[in-house]
């Protein structure tokens, strides 16, 4: 039996040339380093993953999307603090 219903995916869409995206990298790394058992963090460079960016309707970067059972529960565009992201993750679990 899968634990799918309690697992979340955090998608980060970024570009190497995007200054706010670069500001977000250590924040996302800090969340990844906590090793939440319910969380999978996926990072996508919009220049390399154009099709995926279109699929998720990413128009600005950095964009973060939280999925549960492949349904979008939360989306945020722009810089955001780690504590705010973690608050969202725990609230949608």
Automatic annotation (TrEMBL):
Disulfide bonds: 18-21
Gene3D superfamilies per the UniProt record, alphabetical: Glutaredoxin (3.40.30.10)
Keyword Transport: yes
Domain of life: Bacteria
PROSITE patterns found in the cross-reference section: THIOREDOXIN_2
GO cellular component: cytoplasm
InterPro entries the record matches: Thioredoxin, Thioredoxin-like_sf, Thioredoxin_domain
Molecular function GO labels: protein-disulfide reductase activity
Domain annotation Thioredoxin: ranges: 1-93
Keywords: Disulfide bond, Electron transport, Redox-active center, Transport
CDD domains: TRX_family (cd02947)
Protein family membership: Belongs to the thioredoxin family.
Name of the protein in question: Thioredoxin 1
